[in-house]
Amino acid sequence: MRLAALLAALRPVLPLVLGLSLGCSLSLLRASWSQSGGEDQCLGAAGRPGPFAGGARLEAADGGPGPGHEDFRPRIVPYYRDPNKPYKKVLRTRYIQTELGFHERLFVAVLTSKATLNTLAVAVNKTVAHHFPRLLYFTGLRSAKVPHGMVLVAHGDERPIWLMYETMHYIHQHFGSDYDWFYIMQDDTYAQAEQVKALVTHLSINQDVYLGRAEEFIGGDEQARYCHGGFGYLISRSLLLKLHPHLDSCRNEILSVRPDEWLGRCIIDFLGIACVSQLQGQHYHTYELAKNTEPEKEEEEEFQAALAVHPVSDMTLMYRLHKHFSRIQLDRAYQEIQDLQMQIRNLTSLTPAGEAGLTWPVGINAPFLPKSRFEVISWDYFTEQHLFSCPDGSPKCELSGASKADVSEIIESALAQLNSRYQPLLRFSKRQLLNGYRRFDPTRGMEYTLDLLLEAVTQKGHSHVLAKRVSLVRPLSKVEIIPMPYVTEATRVQLVLPLTVQDLDFVANFLDMFAMNTLDTHDNALLTLLFIYHPYDAQRVSQVDVFAGVKAMVGELEKRYAEVKIPWISVKTEVPSQVKLMDIVSKKHPVDTLFFLASVWTEINMEFLNRCRMNTISNWQVFFPVHFQEFNPALVYRGEQTASSSTDFLRDGHFDRHSFAEACFYNSDYMTARTKLAADILDRDEVLESMEVFDVFLHYSGLHLFRAVEPGLVQKYALRSCNPRLSEELYHRCVLSNLEGLASRSHLAMALFEQEQANST
């Protein structure tokens, strides 16, 4: 009975136990077979790997590539430093592309002469120079006068062979390690810049390339060809590096009249490479112009596809060629856009959103959808004469400058689109712009809505006046990276702090923040105090010095930080003009000093000082940050606890766009602009009282003025004292800054509401 009961209990799990036992037994048997019988299948007599059946490629014992593929096998190179050698700090390159060995794509050299420097060379510079990443002009003249906007290299010898030799040597010496391709052309050549740039993107940089219009040597070998210099030619970096050691030999041994023949013979004799017109499936198309050619009437396919056209006899012909080929490029671009839009329309029906997901214009990003009322992009209203959203905040201003040109171009474009759509049935002409609206959408570009009063004329001559609303979009074009000079965060910043009697209550906090954020962290920053005495206080300075307490604080800091010296400058004036004060400070510092003009309410920190260094570039850019001004806590919190979170403080203030007190600039840039100002105003020093440092740079320097909000520059609330002796504009800005710094509209409304409630009770 017990055995039967036990079997009945184990019967459900019996198949599982039997299956596990059978599986384990078979796996053990299979392992023993593979160990005993698999040793000699792939080994030869000496135990080395034998050939695989079927002619398969030989693999390494570890499953990796064989001996012929060592370049593709990853290897770990361990770092080892000899302990007996002194440690040397590794110097990193300035740019990461230098460290990784990246090169720029294309360098262009234009050979010019005395007769054509001010004519054809200037025409080349105005037509195609700005399309190439780097272009230099080479001539044999001595001390040649360089036309505006051109970079000229003068070798001092007008012999053609010598000019070519010196040009190749100069290119190798200065640009041989920076560019992958070198395009050499004459100033009587018109080259399609975009086509040349597209050509080099399809060629391999690992080959020795000598590409151009191949010509036979006179009386030479038919196989040996040189590239005709009139049509330009392309040389790879590898070829230039191999050619450079032989240039001196070529100059001494090869006799030729034409520089392009001399260069071609040099490359063939020493490198064995002849010029080709076709390489890697790419063709170098050229076209030789006949006399009295009309570019607009040339319809040959060879002319339309030409990368280079030669000879160009005069400047007018160069401009006509550029206009013709630019029109061809533009027509191709428009046709490509239409093809892409048609493909998008065809594919939209297959998407989950269907036809509803098709945006207008086709291919442009959909308009920005705000998630709250604070993200709504407002429209600016305008007419043909006035703009009702002015930069200075006034409700109405005259439409002029770039805005007027923009509106005129948009109206013309709208009429052109309407006529192209409805002609020949209707022909439209503008009577009046009724209403105009525009806004900038950062996701797609500038949007316009126009209400036009139009006169429509039919084919039979009947006319009718109607109003029509049109919508247009000026999309964002190709984003370009603007080259900027290199700057570092190691530059010393010289802080300049002007102080008046009204600022004495805030000096202690400023010095404490300066000591904590710069002196304790050993930041490369210095401080200079500028004591502004009223004439009455200056007369009593021997008895009562109003800045004695500040000087005592400075002395305590110098005792605490022995290596720090904080100098001060005393000035007596009734009208503390920012420009006059800066004149005094500028004379006492070197020209390469980076100034940060601060205010007593500023809280200095390392984050902002680094941005001051990075955003200020000598002889290029000055930086005027817009500080964040906290609201009056009595109105914002009304007795409640202030916000403690660092992420909430930005809601309790605003960026004060009326203040230009803070500025970062180099002393050399200020001195240059100040010199121009002095020549303009002569001896009328009273003009300086109505100006700030911002006005000096804005009107008397050609530098970039970078003004941006700076969240790292925070100021506590304080009621500024506005000096009525300053100009009306400066006084008005000071009053506006005080008023807008009280509180936000919601806080002011709540304060008024509570006051009315209190008065009613």
TrEMBL record:
It holds the Pfam family CHGN. It is found in: Golgi apparatus, Golgi stack membrane. Its main location: Golgi. One of its GO terms (molecular function) is N-acetylgalactosaminyl-proteoglycan 3-beta-glucuronosyltransferase activity. Residues 1-19 form the signal peptide. It comes from the Eukaryota. GO terms for cellular component: Golgi cisterna membrane. It is an enzyme of class 2 (transferase). Its EC number is 2.4.1.-. It is a single-pass type II membrane protein. The keyword Transcription does not apply. Belongs to the chondroitin N-acetylgalactosaminyltransferase family. This is Hexosyltransferase.
